[in-house]
Amino acid sequence: MDLNHFYKKNYGDRLALLKAQLGLNEADLEVIANGRTEKGNQIIENYLTDFPVPEGVAVNFLINGKEKIVPMVTEEPSVIAAASHGAKMTLAGGGIQARTTDHLMMGQVLMANVEDADELSTQLNQNEAAILKVANDAHPSIVKRGGGAKKLRIRKLAHQFVSLDIFIDTKEAMGANMINTMLEAVATYLHIKLHQTSLMAVLSNLSDECLATATCQIPVASLATKKLSGEDVADRIVIASLAAQVDPYRAATHNKGIMNGVDAVVMATGNDWRSMESGAHAYAVKDGQYRGLSDWKVSDGKLIGTLTLPMPVGFVGGSININSSAQLAHKFLQITSVKELETVIVSVGLAQNLAALNALVSEGIQRGHMHLQAKSLLLSVGATDTELPNAQLQLEKCPVMDANTAKQVLKTLRN
Ligand code: NDP
Fold first, then answer.
1. Whose CA is nearest to atom 42 of ligand 1?
2. In angstroms, rounded to a whole number, what is the distance separating the alpha carbons of residues 17 and 40?
3. Closest residue by CA, ligand 1 atom 4
4. Which of 263, 272, 340, 342 is catalytic?
5. What is the pLDDT of residue 179?
6. 76 is a catalytic site residue
7. What end-to-end distance do the CA atoms of the chain give, in Å?
8. Where are the transmembrane segments (predicted)?
9. Buried-exposed string 210-245: b where 16+ CB fall within 10 A, e elsewhere
10. Which atom from ligand 1 is nearest to the alpha carbon of 179?
11. 26: Cβ–Cβ under 8 A, 6 or more apart, which residues?
């Protein structure tokens, strides 16, 4: 397969090459052509087409007293419904309160094979002001905006590593690129000034000084279901969250549920969800054991939920500025700053977690999930909008819910 210098080929040549090599047919080429946008080519390399992931809005969010309509991008059925449901549950307690720390991201100049870590630490401490200046001189525009390198931390690690951590206020941007530029300037300075070489100089995705916290306080009585009292539901949610504190297997799924909502907003706003994911999971293991990211307790007749997450996201930067869907997401959210965005993301994570725990400890998650799963299956086998309601009812009654059964249900209805 001659794919040499694929990146240098024009769009038509790329398609022709793939068509010849892979035996693509006209329908395949149409899928590629239908998704093609001008901007895609500016954002990634070897561009072919945009991959469609559905976007919807979650409702019922009241965050710091303001109603929010939250855009979410996800391929998973029931995520948006659950977020909206979780948000609705918080309304009985006045919605969600959310706050943020400074947008202080961290980057590290990592030095290996350090013979005398104490001596190096002393030298780095003595040069603190100069190091901060070198970092800031490498990206002066962020300093003009009131941001820039603010402080250092030195960590002596196992196997003779020393990490020089630099905390940088990146203002409205996630800041990966500006941080990396600043760190590389510092690495060069250390080489020249202290004759200290470094292994690498790069952003850390564990941005634990750039955090957002959401809390809700829901009157226990409002949680009552037909079968369970509000006290019972609240107690079961508290115990379920405790399980995620003691069992990493449960914690992984607990946190996946939180990230269902978080990632969907991160994607809708054009942000880097891998960065968000790695930050969240690293934060979940901050005391040495992987734990659930949220905490639920009952106090004074209220179910109190708290979620804190690292927030390596931006309101500008990366591809956000040229992504019209991300710009539209800002309009949906009626936000003008990264801090407001952080409050929304963490609040969606909390609501998503509440909805999942509530479903798990009361009716189980499958009932709601399978309803939407039935819809997806029927659509995938060609059900029309008019056929859907009846077909969904029939499919949900079947002992097995898969594509074949969905086809059978449709066939029976059409006869
Ligand atoms: P950019 O490189 O686009 O930098 C953001 C730019 O926005 C700044 O350089 C600044 O330019 C400009 N800007 C305008 N207004 C403001 C403001 N009010 N506050 C701050 N900046 C402002 O993006 P980032 O540095 O944010 O990097 C994010 C990208 O990096 C993402 O695409 C991410 O996927 C990627 N990335 C992630 C990594 C990781 O997670 N480990 C590693 C490497 C890249 P100026 O000051 O010059 O006007």
1. 176
2. 19
3. 317
4. 272
5. 97
6. yes
7. 50
8. none
9. bbbbbbbbbebebbeeeebebebbbbbbbebbeebe
10. 25
11. none
Interatomic CA distance for residues 109 and 155, integer angstroms: 11
Determine phi and psi for 211, rounding to 5 degrees: -120, 155
Q: Which sign, positive or negative, has the C-alpha torsion 108, 109, 111, 117?
A: negative
Q: Is the CB of 318 under 6 A from ligand 1?
A: yes
**Catalytic residue check, 128:** no
pLDDT of residue 164: 98
Rounded Cα distance between 29 and 256, Å, is: 35
Is residue 330 among the annotated active site residues? no
What is the three-class DSSP state of 4?
A: coil
The finding on whether 316 has its CB within 6 A of some atom of ligand 1 is: yes
Report d(CA 192, CA 186) in Å as an integer: 10
- Kindly report, residue by residue over 354-378, the tens digit of the pLDDT: 999 999 998 765 566 677 778 878 8
d(C-alpha 37, C-alpha 182), whole Å: 33
**Catalytic choice (66, 88, 150, 369):** 369
Q: How many CB atoms lie within 10 A of CB 360?
A: 17
Ligand 1 neighbourhood includes 174 CB (under 6 angstroms): yes
What 3-state class would DSSP assign to 65?
coil
CA contacts within 13 A on the Cβ side of 266 = 23
> For 27-50, how does the pLDDT look when each residue is reduced to its tens digit (9 = 90+)?
999 999 999 998 898 899 999 999
Q: What is the DSSP letter of 173?
A: B
Distance (Å) from CA 321 to ligand 1 centroid: 10
Token pair 């659509």 is found at 379
Instruction: Pick the atom of ligand 1 nearest to 317's CA.
Output: 3
What is the distance of C-alpha 197 from the center of its chain? 35
Name which residue sits closest to atom 43 of ligand 1, judged by CA.
176
Kind plus residue range of the DSSP H or E element containing 107: strand 104-111
Ligand 1 centre from 292 Cα, in Å?
30
What distance in angstroms lies between residue 11's CA and the mean position of ligand 1's atoms? Answer: 28
CA of 276 to the centre of ligand 1 (A): 15
Q: Is the CB of 279 under 6 A from ligand 1?
A: no
pLDDT score of 367: 62
The verdict on whether 369 is a catalytic residue reads yes
Distance in angstroms (rounded) separating the CA atoms of residues 264 and 16: 35
Where the chain has pLDDT below 50, the residues are none
